[in-house]
Write a structure and sequence with these properties.
Elements (H helix, E strand, L loop, with lengths): L3 E7 L3 H12 L3 E8 L6 H14 L7 E2 L17 H5 L21 H11 L4 E5 L4 H14 L4 E5 L15 H5 L1 H8 L5 E4 L1 H4 L3 E2 L12 H16 L8 E2 L1 H10 L4 E7 L2 E2 L5 E2 L2 H4 L6 E7 L1 H17 L4
Parallel strand pairs: 1-2, 1-4, 2-3, 4-5, 5-6, 6-12
Antiparallel strand pairs: 7-8, 9-12, 10-11
Helix pairs in contact: 1-9, 1-10, 1-12, 4-5, 5-7
The chain binds calcium ion.
The site of calcium ion has 10 residues, from helix 1.
Length: about 325
């Protein structure tokens, strides 16, 4: 079976790092590159963290592309103070990992995504796990090329539950609601993995305690995850949601989602993801929204695959 070609677009914080680790652990995925955006951290930190993570996992062959610095309706990036508590000041749980010898590529995130969309029609999987600014910029430039992308999966939004950035809005869409609206109002078919699914994947540091015994990378990845899973709800027994890893997993294996709701939604200024009356009667449903997940299979598979990745890191 040929490998599926994937690009992941990240604001490399903690769950982004865990999503990248999953993709690298999957032998059936060819990761063409990683594009970066502002979000959990400024875009330059996102580039830095992504490169450092790839270096730590012995995958300096994967190229990194720099993307948006701020949202469409912002003059500049402003970091919400609470993010220090969720992702750490450095975005990866304040764990100090070595800088990569590599730098970001010269071409932009948007150009890289569009180049790959044109080069691999009906093959490419795009996974967006940060604010939707890069994606919206891609659509603005060449929506036609994106219509040939095989699978577009977004981590974002909240349909039947409250938001995590404000009462309505999930963080990724609320970081740039104008870009989010542009994405959801486009002609593209999109799989959406919102809080409705991700908040069912509560993950505890205790699941991966033995990573500390594998090697330095395992120890670091455990410490990165632990910050989040202790920090998000300040209770190790509650754990933390695997937002970005679930989106990456669902792009590869959509059967992990046990309820895909087909609909049309948009993004309001508040960051709320919701359908409009006009959309209700449209014959074509462009959005598949994940409302439930086989959380046990997801968690067990995730832990097992990333454990194997860590064990084989030096080969
Ligand atoms: Ca993210």
């Amino acid at each position: 079976m040929p490998k599926i070609k994937m690009i992941i677009d990240c604001d490399t914080g903690i769950d982004d790092a865990l999503a990248i680790s999953y993709i690298l652990s999957n032998p059936n995925i060819e990761l063409l590159g990683i594009t970066t955006t502002f979000g959990n951290i400024p875009v330059d930190t996102s580039v830095r963290n992504t490169l450092a993570l790839l270096n730590m996992l012995n995958r300096n062959d994967i190229k990194v592309y720099r993307g948006a610095e701020h949202g469409w309706n912002q003059e500049e990036y402003e970091r919400e103070p609470f993010l220090d508590r969720v992702h750490g000041v450095n975005g990866i749980g304040d764990v100090e990992i070595e800088d990569s010898p590599n730098k970001a590529e010269d071409i932009s995130a948007v150009d890289f995504i569009l180049d790959c969309a044109r080069k691999y029609p009906d093959e490419l999987h795009l996974v967006f796990v940060g604010p939707l600014t890069n994606f919206a910029n891609c659509i603005k430039q060449d929506e036609q090329a994106l219509s040939k992308v095989k699978d577009i999966t977004i981590m974002g939004g909240a349909l039947t539950v409250t938001g995590n950035r404000n009462i309505y809005g999930e963080a990724n869409v609320t970081d740039d609601p104008a870009a989010g609206k542009y994405v959801f109002d486009s002609s593209l078919h999109i799989n959406v993995v919102p809080l409705d699914a991700t908040m069912r994947t509560m993950f505890k540091a205790s699941y991966i305690e033995d990573w500390t015994q594998i090697n330095e990378a395992g120890k670091n990845l455990y410490e990165i995850a632990k910050f989040y899973y202790l920090g998000e709800f300040s209770n190790p027994e509650t754990g933390g949601a695997m937002h970005d890893p679930l989106a990456a997993f669902a792009s590869y294996d959509p059967t992990i989602i046990t309820n895909w709701y087909e609909c049309n939604v948009t993004i309001e200024e508040t960051g709320r993801m919701i359908g409009t009356f006009d959309q209700l009667n449209l014959p074509e449903k462009r959005h598949k929204v994940a409302l439930n997940v086989d959380a046990k299979r997801f968690t067990d598979t995730y832990v097992s695959m990333v454990s194997d990745l860590l064990k084989n890191i030096d080969e």
